[in-house]
Amino acid sequence: MNKIKEDEVFFQHGGGVTFSGGEPFMQGEFLIKILKRCQKEKIHTAIETSFYTSLELIKKALPYLDLVYIDLKIFDEQKHQACTNVSSQLIKENIRYVLQSEYKDKVIIRTPLIPTMSATDENIHQIVKFLIQINPEVKYEMLNYNPLASSKYELVNLKYGLESYQMFTKQQMQHFYDVALQAGIKNLIKE
Length: 191
Hints:
globular; single chain; 191 residues; alpha/beta; TIM Barrel; pyruvate-formate lyase- activating enzyme
């Protein structure tokens, strides 16, 4: 909390604290404690999460969060498992819960657009159909591919498999926006 309060001057003008990672829910009990402290201090709180965690932790955290960014990367279960090594079922169940809860207006669902993985028309279409069937007013954002991750892989002596890809152009991003709009999304957040 002392570290957070060092930036207190920025919080007075619309700033706050965003918990990201990795996955913030991996330190769930600590996360809940620090969120409670932030609320007590009237500090705006946000989280960036995969939502691959227990519903119990989510329910504990939601009252203390002002903004919830949830990544839904790949809709197809087999592709999700192949790309992330975890099932997407828990993520989808948690998303269903929060989009039907009193906290739904705090939520923005995001899809990071990764070439050959999540950046496909079919994937975006399936995600949007899933989301609007739960809550037609859901807020949805697609994040442009960022090739900067390659340097992180080098630091830990791993091979980065997407080095030949660049960020999507404005025209390519517009295509993805059009796919989401045609699938029925109403509240699309554009870069």
